């Protein structure tokens, strides 16, 4: 069985030029990239902001999370570990290298109580919200 790269323009058969260019760049530079941007999902509920980065295959020791002046910066690295053992790679589409993503936190985000966890290739950072203060007061007439 021979692996054939999918051609978006014509899925019935691969493009010779596309395959030739892919092979040239794969053989010349290999799968190691210097940097990449992992996919990020951000959501919120009434209690917290939930930031999730997709970094499968990374190790939790390789992440660094910093909060400076209201900017949350998440950085890390996913290293390529080539294990040949009789394997010839035909295609490597996974991303490797270092990354850094920064997020400006809203005014209601609390710097205390930020939690981070890494499970199943997803780095999850929970930023709690400050409790809403009720802007109501009674003014006494004198």
UniProtKB/TrEMBL annotation:
<dbReference type="InterPro" id="IPR031107">
    <property type="entry name" value="Small_HSP"/>
</dbReference>
<dbReference type="Pfam" id="PF00011">
    <property type="entry name" value="HSP20"/>
</dbReference>
<comment type="similarity">
    <text>Belongs to the small heat shock protein (HSP20) family.</text>
</comment>
<protein>
    <submittedName>
        <fullName>Hsp20/alpha crystallin family protein</fullName>
    </submittedName>
</protein>
<dbReference type="InterPro" id="IPR002068">
    <property type="entry name" value="A-crystallin/Hsp20_dom"/>
</dbReference>
<feature type="domain" description="SHSP">
    <location>
        <begin position="31"/>
        <end position="142"/>
    </location>
</feature>
<dbReference type="InterPro" id="IPR008978">
    <property type="entry name" value="HSP20-like_chaperone"/>
</dbReference>
């Amino acid at each position: 069985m021979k692996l054939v790269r999918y051609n978006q323009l014509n899925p019935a058969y691969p493009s010779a030029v596309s395959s030739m260019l892919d092979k040239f760049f794969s053989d010349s530079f290999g799968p190691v990239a210097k940097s990449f941007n992992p996919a990020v999902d951000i959501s919120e509920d009434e209690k917290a902001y939930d930031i999730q980065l997709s970094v499968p295959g990374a190790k939790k020791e390789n992440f660094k999370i910093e909060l400076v002046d209201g900017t949350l910066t998440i950085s890390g690295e996913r290293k390529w570990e080539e294990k040949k053992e009789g394997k010839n790679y035909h295609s490597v589409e996974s991303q490797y290298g270092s990354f850094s993503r920064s997020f400006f936190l809203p005014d209601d985000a609390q710097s205390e109580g930020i939690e981070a966890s890494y499970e199943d290739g997803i780095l999850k950072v929970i930023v709690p919200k400050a409790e809403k203060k009720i802007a109501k007061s009674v003014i006494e007439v004198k």
